[in-house]
Amino acid sequence: MTQGTALAPQPLALFDPSPDSTRSREQGIALVTGAAGFIGSHLAEQLLSENFQVIGLDCFTDYYPRAVKEANLTMLRHSGNFRFVEGDLCTFDVQSLLTRKGVRYIFHIAGQAGVRPSWGNNFDPYVTHNIVATQRLLEACREVELERFIFASSSSVYGDAEKFPTDEEQLPRPLSPYGVTKLAAEHLCFLYAKQFQLPVVALRYFSVYGPRQRPDMAFRIFIDAILREQPIPLLGDGEQTREFTFVTDIVQANLAAARASDVLGRVYNIGGGARVTMNEALDVLRKVTGKSIRVEYQPRAPGDHRHGGADISRAQRELHYAPRVGLEEGLRQQFEWQRAVAHRESPVASLEP
């Protein structure tokens, strides 16, 4: 299929498995919304490696350049078991997409991301892509036999929690419009689960990082600054804490939630297993990159919570989730990826540490 070409529903006949692909039939067909994004593309690749047939759906919002998302799809487009659909969940005929070839698993990763841009006149896309799109997808699922509907929620629903590490029983108090929309979408998922028996599981991600991280995210910005030998802009005093979770651990959590029994209607924290200050994270970056780092401390942004940390004991117990990639190794992988990207974009530049 030509890169950049949207897929109409008719070509989905290409998903018919060959006679010798028994395992593929057993794994079934999965829909990944937001498949061209950071997390969605990694998840789709892993599903393919485990012999799922994968339909990827994305509407290419203008939150960051389309070319970045097209690059995320590169490996996926080489698989005969992957088909890409360009469409907006708010207007696309999702039900036809689900029923024509029997989608059994939905990983709803799509959404409007970003805490800081969600204020003011920028709020409308958050309502559209986080709340309305989720409701439209849930409506489309009412007449579909699903094995599992996995919703990608966020630790932003907690805001400044009263307990650290924070467990799932803590009352959510979002500090940003973004967090409000993610919590609203989460509530919609459980509402449809209760009223229409949809097999919903929600995962609250904590500070995801790794290769293909969005251009607006902290480590992506920090490493770009290091490669350009520029100061790192850090919002706040650096003593705020975050729990960073490597993207492959997020992927494994999604697969675990899709396979585990007795988890329907449950919400799970998915964290990386360690909580650090931003200053400590910068020390790890110094070690990984072998470069001196200059930091420009800037005022804390509206909506940024002071501390974040995940109690993942429920996910460990019920999903058998165990984060595998520590911060140093994860940042090393992200640094090597960003260095390779920078070299391709500016091959004459010397990017050796």
How would you portray this structure in words?
Helices cover 37% and strands 16% of the residues. Helix 7 crosses helix 11. It has helices at residues 22-27, 38-49, 66-72, 94-100, 123-141, 177-196, 218-227, 247-259, 278-289, 313-318, 327-345; strands at residues 29-33, 53-58, 82-86, 103-108, 148-154, 200-205, 208-209, 232-235, 241-243, 245-246, 266-270, 275-277, 295-298. The strands form 4 sheets. It has a 7-stranded parallel beta sheet, sandwiched between helices. Strands 7-10 form a two-stranded parallel sheet. Strands 8-13 form a two-stranded parallel ribbon. It is of the alpha/beta class and 353 residues long.
Name the helicity range: 25-40%
Q: What is the 3D form?
A: globular
What's the rounded overall pLDDT mean? 90
Number of helical stretches of at least 4 residues: 11
* Total beta strand runs: 13
Low-confidence stretches: 1-24, 348-353
Order of helices and strands: HEHEHEHEHEHEEHEEEHEEHEHH
Classify the secondary structure makeup into a structural class. alpha/beta
The first-to-last residue Cα distance is 39 Å
Strand order of the largest sheet: 3-2-1-4-5-6-11
What is the makeup of the main sheet? 7 strands, parallel
In angstroms, what is the radius of gyration? 20 Å
- Assess the beta-strand content as a share of residues: 15-25%
Kindly list the characteristics that best describe this protein.
single chain, 353 residues, alpha/beta, seven-stranded parallel sheet, two-stranded parallel sheet, 11 helices, 13 strands, 37% helix, disordered N terminus, disordered C terminus
